Amino acid sequence: MVELMAVKDYAQQIAEAIATVVKIDVEIADRNLVRIAGTGRYHKGVGLSMDRQGYVYQEVLRTGHQFVIETPGNHPLCAPCKARGNCSEKYEVVSPINLDDKAVGAIGLVCFTEAQAKLIQENQQSYLIFLTKMAETIALKMKEQEFLAGLVSANHYLNSIIDCLEEGLITVDLDGSVLHFNQAAKRLFSANLLTPRSHLKNLFTDQIVTDILKVGSNADEVIEREVHVETKKNRVQMILRALPIDSEEGVKSIGVTLRPFDEIGRIVNRLSLQDAGYTIDDILGVSETICQIRERAKVVAASKSTILIRGESGTGKEMLARSIHNLSSRQQGMFMAINCTAIPEALLESELFGYEEGAFTGARKGGKLGKIELANKGTLFLDEIGDMPLFLQAKILRVLQERQVERVGGIVPIPVDVRVIAATHRNLEEMMAKGEFRKDLYYRINVVPIDIKPLRNRKEDLEILCKHFINGFNEQLNKNVQFLSEGFRRRLSEYAWPGNVRELQNIMEYAMNLVKDSTLTEEHLSPRLKSLEIQDVLNEYNLENVERETILRCYQTFGTGVQAKERTAKALGIGIATLYRKLARYNIE
Description:
Blueprint: H1 8-22, E1 25-30, E2 35-38, H2 55-63, E3 67-69, E4 91-99, E5 102-111, H3 114-122, H4 124-164, E6 168-173, E7 178-181, H5 183-188, H6 206-214, E8 223-230, E9 235-247, E10 250-260, H7 261-271, H8 288-300, E11 307-310, H9 317-327, E12 335-339, H10 345-353, H11 371-374, E13 379-383, H12 390-402, E14 404-405, E15 414-415, E16 419-424, H13 428-433, H14 439-445, E17 448-451, H15 462-477, E18 483-484, H16 486-494, H17 500-514, E19 519-520, H18 527-530, H19 532-540, H20 543-558, H21 562-572, H22 576-585
Parallel strand pairs: 11-16, 11-17, 12-13, 13-16, 18-19
Antiparallel strand pairs: 1-2, 1-5, 3-4, 4-5, 6-7, 6-10, 8-9, 9-10, 14-15
Helix pairs in contact: 12-14, 15-17, 20-21
């Protein structure tokens, strides 16, 4: 509630006006008995307390009623006063100043001559009504002041809320003149470009301004456009959104919001399932190779270098990439995964780099963001990069070298800050030798190589992986499996796992669906694992199988490079040309 002191200047004007008309002194006190206005001999006492002589005012404030004191100094209310019996006042009329049914102050007419006292006494009722109206006038002024203070407070509060927004906000009239802007918008533009009454043409291109102003003609119209803003520091890509501001009189202004692309990426990342990504502890295994991978991932996550993850399908290459991302300083940014095999070659370029409006037939109006731009400030995961067409390999190389992208149909390079993690199951060295993979790109992505061995070469990890899948399927299928029979373990250990961990997960899901008690046995294995025993006996004596397994073990021991192949051929006691023929025959690569 506004105090009477807030309108003391107005109260003084009222007091002086009354005193001028009726020729009688006036004093006004607030509810704390502080004199806030006074005329005549009371003028010097403005601002001072009346607690030692304002006993009549105390009673008026307590009761909320008017009082008339015909014998000041002798009235019972004057008993505590030191001037009792010798008071200079001859007559006194006091009226409360009520606000919301509470006395917040009092106004009084005080006579010091018999003539003044006689005048009021003869017209007492009129003076009481007059004084009541003056008190109401002061109360209305307080109400007005309270309303204005509320408006100021609400306006300040609203501005504070608007300034808290991360996105820039500008409001303009229907001609494009700026009405208001928040602090985020102010930080984007230089002071001479964005000022009250400046125009949108100072900020955006003519086409963007035209699109924004179209919104003013339709209360339901909303437009979104991609814009490049020349900020105080650099050139920033943003999403501009314009919408009409409707009122009782119709659309009179337009709101324009600006949000940077990387902000959008972070929001999408936080609200999507990607935010619940893998951690390094989700890379399960007790084998030496898995322990080394976990340690290396922790180290390389802190850098910005490009990583190449190699391994067969189903070994968990994307899981490792997500773990590195979530362990890095880019974890608040987007993890954008692109499978270079899953997307048709004709669409892959526009998916990666985006396109401008009108770049080709069927291009969406306003263009489209590419996955690389969405990954700005985050991580771009290029899965199966060995299957990427050669012409796109050149564009990816430019991204790695220049940290820029050019959209399809675009002419302006767009700066991006992404970390690239690539993955493949293919032999990139062989592909380079055949001209199927660019050497310069190979050396760009192979900065930090990480190899994930297939499951058949680290079967000591089977136990912990099985427990992990059992726990997950127990919860998912409402089962209570706790044990594996020896036969079940043996069959898993004897199997070659061509599908690696992904295949193991499928096998465990199949078994968990069949089991009824707490133990998984051979009965719960899929048919192809049950038939392995007979087939294994036959394969054990097959010369081609023996030769293939021997070459495969030797091949995996020495590696896949050209020099490694020479060592493999020497170890097998055959020529390099013979080795190549047998590799092709047994489809080892």
